[in-house]
Design a protein that fits this description.
By secondary structure, this protein is α+β, with helices and mostly antiparallel strands. The chain contains three helices and nine strands, in the order αααβββββββββ. It folds into two domains: 40 residues, no CATH class; 129 residues, no CATH class. The protein has a nine-stranded antiparallel β-sheet, with no helix packed on it.
């Protein structure tokens, strides 16, 4: 039986997390060794990703400031491919958005047209999803390459498919690693 102190710490951890279901599951499994955490968080649908906090950017969502935390462009299984070289119709978790109320959304980008290195005119779709998978916003846009050698480009929104968040343009720097939303 758990001590009262351990129970209170577990209850507080669940209350303080952005999305408590994985935390409740994790804490209920009685993990006894930290080496188990990686495989268990994957099994309960809460895998970790390689996020680079040094490349975080402040963005604006409907006039409110938020923080974008990019998933590192990397060959590592915890990283992601550059959106400039993304295979068509393969969704990529490009980053996380932390809102002023500390909700966390995923920014998922799917290349819809083009093959190989991206070109101006290629179509991409962006989805913003809560950590529980609920769709918040979904839009489509065309890529405008500004400097292909340095990986600078803009995704100009052409159509809002769902939700109330509407960007004017998304700016991708360093082959989509650094994200600025205008």
């Amino acid at each position: 039986m758990k001590s009262h102190e351990a129970f209170e710490l577990q209850r507080k951890a669940v209350q303080l997390t952005a999305y408590s279901k994985p935390v409740e599951e994790l804490l209920s499994l009685g993990i006894e060794n930290p080496t188990e955490l990686d495989s268990i968080t994957r099994a309960i649908g809460a895998p970790s990703f390689l996020v680079n906090l040094h490349m975080a950017t402040r963005i604006s969502l409907n006039g409110e400031s938020a923080l974008h935390l990019p998933v590192q462009v990397s060959n590592s299984e915890r990283g992601r491919p550059s959106l400039y070289y993304q295979e068509p119709n393969q969704p990529v978790l490009a980053g996380y958005i932390v809102l002023p109320n500390f909700d966390v959304w995923q920014r998922i980008v799917t290349r819809k047209t083009g093959k190989g290195k991206a070109r101006s005119g290629d179509v991409y779709e962006t989805e913003l999803r809560k950590l529980n998978g609920e769709l918040v916003a979904h839009w489509r846009g065309r890529l405008k390459i500004i400097d292909g050698d340095k990986g600078y480009g803009q995704l100009i929104t052409t159509e809002v498919l769902a939700g109330g968040v509407r960007p004017n343009k998304e700016v991708w720097i360093a082959w989509s690693f650094i994200y600025v939303k205008d």
